[in-house]
Amino acid sequence: MPPPRLLFDENLAPSLPHRLADLYPQSVHVRDVGLATADDEQIWLHARDRGYLIVTKDDDFRQRSFLRGAPPKVVWAKLGNCSTADIEQALRSRYAMIVAFATDEMGALLVVARL
Questions:
Q1: Residue 1 banded pLDDT, cuts 50, 70, 90
Q2: CB count in 10 Å sphere of residue 22
Q3: How do the domains of the chain map onto residue ranges?
Q4: Is 115 a residue whose pLDDT tops 70?
Q5: Cα 88 off chain centre by
């Protein structure tokens, strides 16, 4: 199975796809795909139609995942005020968990919180 493809929301650094390319190749930031000013619905549909997991710090996507379920799946970075390096480390250290989540047919939301 190929590694999960992540779509990073606007509230996360555009450098994250590059910084994590060794683990999550073919991941993109919303800016990379013309969705920098898109609303949540457009981002949701883009991720759903192209097989991305949405990575966000935005509570709106968490709520949307409860209402609609998957696809797409949502990785909610519930890390509070933190650096891009903290986000990167959280996604690196939870790689196995994110891969398992991506293949879990029942899961719609994965909360990534501080260790």
A1: confident
A2: 9
A3: 6-113
A4: no
A5: 12
Contact between 94 and 76 under an 8 Å Cβ cutoff? The reply is no
Q: Name the token pair of 31.
A: 């800016």
Within 1-115, strands assigned E span: 6-8, 28-29, 53-56, 74-78, 109-113
CA 96 to chain centre: 15
Q: In this prediction, what percent of the chain has a pLDDT beyond 90? A: 94
**Using 50, 70 and 90 to split pLDDT, how confident is the model at 2?**
confident
Q: How far apart are CA 18 and CA 45, in angstroms?
A: 23
Place of tokens 């590059």: 18
